[in-house]
Amino acid sequence: MENNELKQKVLSQAASAKDASRALAVMTAQQKSKILLAMADALSKNAKDILFHNEIDVEAAKEAGLAAVLTDRLTLNEARVNAMIQGVRDVAALKDPVGEIVEDLKPAQNIDVKKIRVPLGVIAMIYEARPNVTVDAATLCLKAGNAVILKGGSEAMNSNRILAKIIYDSAVAAGMPAGAIQFIDTTDRSAVTELLALDKYVDLLIPRGSEELVNFIRKNTLIPVLSHGKGLCHTYIDKDADLKTALEIAVNAKCQRPAVCNAMETLLVHKDVAAEVLPAICKLYSEEGVEVRGCPLARNIIPEAKEAVEADWSTEYHDKIISIKVVNSLDEAIAHINKYGSQHSDAIVTKDKSAADKFLAQVDSAGVFVNASTRLHDGSVFGLGCEIGISTQKLHARGAMGLKELTTTKYIVRGQGNIRK
């Protein structure tokens, strides 16, 4: 596709989304839920077709030498497709945030002032490798009254294309305004550049992918960006931790899905329990095929660990690799997390309530956990149905983002001829 032709195509899609967003914004909760349930039924009916097209992407990724843990992100199986469909149904059942009265003010001027929740308008998603985002993003955006523009990565093109077609066709048939879901069907990377220039049409841009992708988008657009942040997550095993609990959490946080953003990358262990904890956890990591890198104090206890260098403390591995550091105190653990972490998800394992409370108060992250795995930082786990991402920003949203995070507010003022004097 020629550059000018691509530019006009992306512009046309954005303009169509803008038009559709105005109709979508005034739809009732019942109308939107009907659309979502139709999407879920269509996805269920076409599950085999979805898996067939996904297998094409997965085989191409393997032939291209994509790392196994990254190929895992790309892969859909029956369980994942069923979870995706259930996420759509769960969101359909959630309370519609649009129209919610956030504040009901009674100023002295005898006017009625309410702050209400309204859709953002048009949300653009730029994402890599994860075909489920196609469905999750469309589902949440539609329920919150927004049109959505979807630009997935080339590695998932076959999966994204079939998913977008299924949800669009079924949604329009159920009453969705035509154009409310826009799928940019090209592997040409310049389509992203064209999309970034459309600040007159797009109200919010959400990138989900590598740190390089997020940084590129931030530097090259005037559209407000709400990024799904880097996940450099920590677990701290306190001196008063229950050993069994600590081991279970440390294994789950690292090993369940090591390529995802809420997987643990660094394990911090208090010096008073290091001699007991480290040999046990290293045995479990060895069984899971995890490469262990340790600080000098850790390697004194587990000499089989590789030497951890400075760069390890700030590396998101996306792989079966873990960095382990022995710390002298809770304060040192908190300081390490706040220095090297990405403000995503961090956990403490302890039976000491005062230590837990201090950790909760002083660790500056979007999700802070006590005696729980960082893997739990997820919209579906939190009851949001599904999520559009996990924000590590402090404005406009932070943490797992669901329906409310895809809305804004406006003031509704009713008077009786009131004027300002």
Total of helices: 14
Q: Which architecture of the largest domain would the CATH scheme give at its second level?
A: 3-Layer(aba) Sandwich
Helix content: 40-55%
- Spans of at least 5 consecutive residues whose pLDDT stays below 50 are none
Annotated CATH homologous superfamily of the largest domain: Aldehyde Dehydrogenase, Chain A, domain 1
Question: Order of strands across the widest beta sheet?
Answer: 10-9-11-8-7-12-13
Order of helices and strands: HHHHHEEEHEHEHEHEHEHEHEEHEHEEEE
Assign the CATH class of the largest domain. Alpha Beta
* CATH fold description of the largest domain: Aldehyde Dehydrogenase, Chain A, domain 1
**Tally of domains:** 2
The proportion of residues in beta strands is 15-25%
Describe the structure.
The structure is a single chain. The chain has 421 residues and is an alpha/beta fold. The chain has 2 domains: 3-226 and 401-414, Aldehyde Dehydrogenase, Chain A, domain 1 (3-Layer(aba) Sandwich); 233-376, 3-Layer(aba) Sandwich (Aldehyde Dehydrogenase, Chain A, domain 2), CATH 3.40.309.10. It is 43% helix and 19% strand. It has 14 helices and 16 strands. The strands form 4 sheets. A 7-stranded parallel beta sheet has the order 10-9-11-8-7-12-13, sandwiched between helices. It has a 4-stranded parallel beta sheet with strand order 5-4-3-6, with helices on both faces. Helix 6 links the parallel strand 3 and strand 4 (147-151). Helix 2 runs antiparallel to helix 5 (78-93) and helix 10 packs across helix 11. It is globular, with a radius of gyration of 23 Å. The mean pLDDT is 96.
